[in-house]
Amino acid sequence: MKATRVLAGRREGELLAFPSVRRMTDLLSQRCREQSWVRTSVATLDRFRTMTGHTDLEALREQALADPIVAEGTLASFAAALAGYTESQVSALAMGAKIWFRLNSIAVPWRPLGGMSSPPTLAAGDQQGIERVILLALIGSGLQLTELLRLRVGDVGSLDADGCLMPDVEADPLAVAFTPRRGKQVERITFLTYQARQALLASLEQGAINRASMHPLDLDAPLLAQSDGSKVSAQSVARARRRSGALIRAGSEVNVTLCRTTGDFFREWGLPGSRFVGPEELPMEEYR
């Protein structure tokens, strides 16, 4: 799908006038199964552009190509402007800028830019539990469970200038290269959330500790494994499925309850303003 269609009717679609942004969106449109990544990348790049004052992205690209330190400096300035935001929020908002730099041949580091720490998402007694990693990795990535379970350590990392994956488990944002289970069998990319990245790193670190391994990660090893290095068991997958179903049901129940409560309120009290008592016209001179 063309980027112009993906961004149709959206204000940030104006950024497609920049050739460097068009290159980014074209590559993402070709490589991503979930076109939401195109919208997310452009929207967060627009936020970066506004908050750093670099309204002319082509000029910034030329400066960064001449001196890569310029790119790192603008990212640091952006992170400073987001003081008070959590790590996951900073990570999400910096995503578009990092992708834009990389896909335009500016090799900025894909590492967290800081932010306030926040409690872990889907907290559990065992924060390294593989079931938690599975749940978080599925949220927002668009991956199917079978696609996730087939991933290898070398399938996650950052992107090069052509949108190809470079293995790096500590990358932020963390890109994932996968082959769809159905449809056209071509490699696609997606991204894990910051929370999923953190859970995955904790799981991999715990596995290395349990195995007393000082060797680098084997890129051909399964990305998801039990703490002893064995493959994910059917029991773990079943528990993850049950917890996923419980989360979906809980969210659905909250949504239904909120809608019913809102409807009940308006049925009892009427439309907004219907019970207003007072002068029809305000004495505007008192507000001048």
Q: How would you describe what is shown here?
A:
This protein has 288 residues and is mainly α. It folds into two domains: 3-103, no CATH class; 130-236, Orthogonal Bundle (hpI Integrase, Chain A), CATH 1.10.443.10. The protein has ten helices and four strands; from the N terminus they run ααααααααββββαα. It has helices at residues 3-6, 19-31, 36-52, 57-66, 68-81, 87-103, 130-138, 145-149, 194-210, 234-269; strands spanning 156-159, 165-167, 174-178, 188-192. A four-stranded antiparallel β-sheet has the order 2-1-3-4, sandwiched between helices. Helix 2 (19-31) packs antiparallel against helix 3 (36-52), helix 5 runs antiparallel to helix 6 (87-103) and helix 7 (130-138) crosses helix 10 (234-269). The radius of gyration is 23 Å and the shape is globular. It starts with a helix and ends in a 19-residue tail after the last helix.
Over the alpha carbons, how many angstroms does the gyration radius reach?
23 Å
Shape: globular
Strand order of the largest sheet: 2-1-3-4
**CATH superfamily (homologous) name of the largest domain:** Intergrase catalytic core
Structural category is: mainly alpha
Domain tally: 2
**β-sheet strand percentage:** 5-15%
Number of helices: 10
